[in-house]
Structure formats: C-alpha cells, structure tokens
C-alpha cells in the first residue's frame, strides 16, 4: 500500500462508466512512481461512517479494482457539472466533507466570471465585451455594434449550444453554431428580418451570454484558438505547463477537440498568421504573463486552485484575448501534438501539488499540537 492517498472525484456517464477513465489510469501509473495511490470515486460511492467504494488501478493486473476503504485525505475534483443535479450532489459532498483537503474550488458560470474578472484593471483589457442575453432586439443592436458575436450558454462546456452570428453586409447575416449535442448546425444566411425570426425559434433566455466575437478564421475558413495550461507545481507555485493551438473542423465555429477539432503546436499556429519571429515571441510572452495574473487573481476570489485551462484568442493584429477559463482542463492537446514531456508534466503536476499540500497540512497539525501542549504546561 502506498504511503499517500489521493482521492479523485469523478462523475459516472450512465450508471457504470466513469468519465476520463483513461486519464485516471495515467494518473495512477504516475502516482505509483511518486508513492501516491490514486483512488477514484463518485459522491454516489460514499457510504455511511466515512467509508467509500473506490476504484484503484492495478498495474500488474492491468485493470481497475473496486474496494471499500476510508475517505482519502486529499481530493482532486474532476467532476464536470453537466447537469444541475450533479452540481447539487458535489456541493453537498464538499459541504459534508469540508475538513478534507481539496486541491481546488469550483469557479463561477460564464456571466458571473466575466463580472468578477472585469473588476481587475490588469485583466479587463483581455476580455471581449460581454452582456447577458435579454432579447432578440438587444442582440441585434449588439451585433450591429460589433459585427461579429457569439451567443453562449452561461453553464455550457465543450462548445455545446454556441451560436456565431456575423454581419456580412448592410442586410445580410450569417448564423452558424452547434446544438446541445455538439452537432454542427448548417450555416444560415439571412436578412435582418429572417434572422430575427430564426433567433426567436431558438428560444434563447437569460441563461445565455452575448460576447463580442474575435476574428479567428484562418485562410482556409477554419477557426482556431490556443489552450494554455497553468498548474501548481510541487512547491505550491503556479507554473505554465504548456500552450498548444487548436483548429476547428470545417464549418465549425469552435475548435474544441471533443467537437472534432485538431491540435497543432503553438509555434506552428502562430507562424500561420505572423511572419515575424519577434512578434510571435512577444505574443507568447504576453500569453504567459497574463496566465499568471489571471491565476493569482482567481485564487483571491475563489480560494486555492490546482490548475486552470485558458482558452486564448489572438486577433489578426496580435492582441491577446481570454475566451474562457476552465478549472478542470483536459491535457490531451499536448499528447496529440506529440509533446510527450509536456503531457507527462501535465499529468504529474496535480500529484506533486497534492503531496505538497499533504506536507503543509502535516506541518500545520504538528505546529497546532505543539501550541496546545505549551498551553497545557
């Protein structure tokens, strides 16, 4: 049995299969090298008296073993809140087990996050103008001002339910998007009147946000952006692990890998648009510097965090924009571009940070018991 245990909180897809199981398998293998046993479970696996039925990966047998055990002391939350019921279940788990060490905290939805980030004058310039959806009329006004807008569900993930609307001419608009199943919606060219009718049929409500669009179209018509991963290292400090480019499939308005996007190195994607190596270097430096600012600020608002995936856009002039921030990022993009060392670091860092957190906690308990014994002397 390993000397240290890390609980990974996950969600079931259907009744039996856990989301991200291949990542947890990799995490388990890397954990073994560090003397950390990875134990995966869902809040539904918790039983009475602090016992829980966890899954551990047995490398010698090459399979997952389910066993009943006590609650692990450190929790790495990898649950995606795809439904309100999941969110409530996880909220209840965190509340009931508040004494456990959590590596991170949940963040806010897209609209609340925009409001929070807008408070910081160093971060504000990186944010596209964003408003809450109120009516088709207001959306059309916003569109005339910015000529390109995105309409997003405030709780959406993976490109689900996103619309892109662009004004092509005095009375010509192009509507594209993906439905809630991530399926690409056929492009729709329309006059303002036709667009208004179409938008009414989509039954948008104030659970959506409307965002100024950034021009992300490459010469071949596909959209692109960058995924930057910043994580806590084994000293409890933020460090940029890596950044990779993502290019969406044809006719897609998003570049998410889950939605059929492809991965490409950051340098290669920057070189498609910017001929000057100096310009590319300055964009990379700005992305990294912004990532540290954002990570530090979010911790002042939400408490300790472990890792953040930032979806970053670079417009044709080289300006850097934040599209979205994700506290439970995937790291597959680095494996897909053949960056094996970066992918390994991306997997290992949460483990190293968990070990560091355990050490801090032990020191705190030792200091506390020393103080108590002094007080009773």
TrEMBL record:
The keyword ATP-binding applies. Keywords: ATP-binding, Nucleotide-binding. Residues 114-352 form the ATP-grasp domain. PROSITE patterns: ATP_GRASP. InterPro entries: ATP-grasp, YheC/D. It comes from the Bacteria. Pfam families: ATPgrasp_YheCD. This is ATP-grasp domain-containing protein. It comes from Paenibacillus aceris.
């Amino acid at each position: 049995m390993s000397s240290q245990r890390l609980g990974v909180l996950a969600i079931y897809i259907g009744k039996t299969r856990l989301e991200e199981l291949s990542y947890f398998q990799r995490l388990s293998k890397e954990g073994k090298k560090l003397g950390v046993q990875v134990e995966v479970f869902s809040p539904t696996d918790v039983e009475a008296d602090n016992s829980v039925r966890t899954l551990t990966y047995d490398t010698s047998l090459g399979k997952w073993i389910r066993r009943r055990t006590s609650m692990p002391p450190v929790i790495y939350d990898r649950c995606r809140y795809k439904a309100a019921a999941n969110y409530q279940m996880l909220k209840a788990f965190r509340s009931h087990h508040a004494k456990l060490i959590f590596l991170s905290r949940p963040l806010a939805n897209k609209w609340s996050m925009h409001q929070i980030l807008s408070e910081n004058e160093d971060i504000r310039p990186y944010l596209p103008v964003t408003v809450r959806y109120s009516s088709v009329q207001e959306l059309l006004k916003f569109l005339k001002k910015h000529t390109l807008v995105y309409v997003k569900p405030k709780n959406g993930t993976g490109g689900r339910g996103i619309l892109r609307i662009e004004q092509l001419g005095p009375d010509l608009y192009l509507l594209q998007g993906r439905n809630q199943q991530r399926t690409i919606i056929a492009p729709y060219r329309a006059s303002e009147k036709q667009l208004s009718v179409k938008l009414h049929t989509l039954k948008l409500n104030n659970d959506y946000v409307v965002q100024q669009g950034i021009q992300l179209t490459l010469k071949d018509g596909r959209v692109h952006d960058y995924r930057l991963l910043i994580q806590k290292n084994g000293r409890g400090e933020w460090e940029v692990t890596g950044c990779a480019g993502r290019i969406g499939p044809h006719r897609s308005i998003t570049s998410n890998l889950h939605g059929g996007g492809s991965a490409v190195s950051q340098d290669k994607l920057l070189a498609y648009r910017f001929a000057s190596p100096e310009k590319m270097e300055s964009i990379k430096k700005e992305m990294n510097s912004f990532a540290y600012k954002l990570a530090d600020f979010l911790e002042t608002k939400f408490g300790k965090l472990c890792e953040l995936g930032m979806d970053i856009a670079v417009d044709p002039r080289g300006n850097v924009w934040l599209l979205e921030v994700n506290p439970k990022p995937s790291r597959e993009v680095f494996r897909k571009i053949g960056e094996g060392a970066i992918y390994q670091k991306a997997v290992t860092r949460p483990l190293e940070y968990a070990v560091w957190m355990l050490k801090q906690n032990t020191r705190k308990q030792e200091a506390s018991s020393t103080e108590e014994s002094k007080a009773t002397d």
